Model the fold of this input.
Amino acid sequence: MNAVLGENDLEYTQRSLTDLLEVRDRALFLQSIRNDGTLAIIYETVNRASRLAAQGNLDTQQLDPAAVVKSTLFQKKSEQALFDALSQVNQTMQGVRNYQKLIDSLGQIAPTVANFFDGADSVLVMDSDPAIQQNRLNLLGVLRNHARVLADFGAIVKS
Done:
């Protein structure tokens, strides 16, 4: 339940108090994707991105990577690939609150996120250059923010 209500997260608390039906819908949807195995496809990458993004300072409302990520700071192809994937998620979800569409989008980019972390072209997010580090944290922050529309993935207990 903390995944839907957030853990010590004022934004989630306010959201929950203003729309109880939305809380129920998110909880039921989260349970359904847990049951059908869809959650397992995205959990690791989104959770890892969310944990790292917490070390940055990106506003949780920021969904457009173009507004906060500088492609001139990219050093690896995986950074551009993640940026492009997040731009597509942002375009797909623009003005839409459709949890299935969100999960489908996150599932589609999961391999790109995994490659960013662990692929042949992976990056060290916590780079020694503060500008590169912040840029990478912003990429992950945008991913976290899209996932937050549904739940706080850092609070999901993996079963």
User: Anything to note?
Assistant: The chain has a mean pLDDT of 90. The chain has eight helices and no strands. The helical segments are 2-5, 10-18, 20-35, 38-53, 65-68, 77-93, 99-118, 130-148.
